[in-house]
Amino acid sequence: MAKSALIAVVDDDESVREALTALLKSLGYATVAFSRAEDFLSSEQRGSADCLIADIQMPGMSGFDLYAQIAASEEKIPTILVTAYPTRGAQTRALRDGVKAYLTKPFSEDELLGSIRVALDSGCD
Fold it and tell me: pLDDT of 22-42, one tens digit each?
């Protein structure tokens, strides 16, 4: 059996983190969750995550800042940014910078799964 993809979830909203990790686990993905971007960056799982789902607006480091740090590192991780406060400018910036998907909360299970498949299939090209 192939190794299950490890998906990291970074969101300061506990209910969102719990819902996302429960959904992803029910679909067979391995998951790790963090309430702060800084915690993910300093974790051992950073080097083994196959996909990252991060909220844009969080206390401390934003999802954009988190992605910029990952994109500049040797451990590039296909990233999906999510937000409850969408703007065209943020979406344009995310996709221009190389984020694999930009989702607006609340998003459907199908939108999320489609974005994860794109992220996992595309890697970090």
Answer: 999 999 999 999 999 999 999
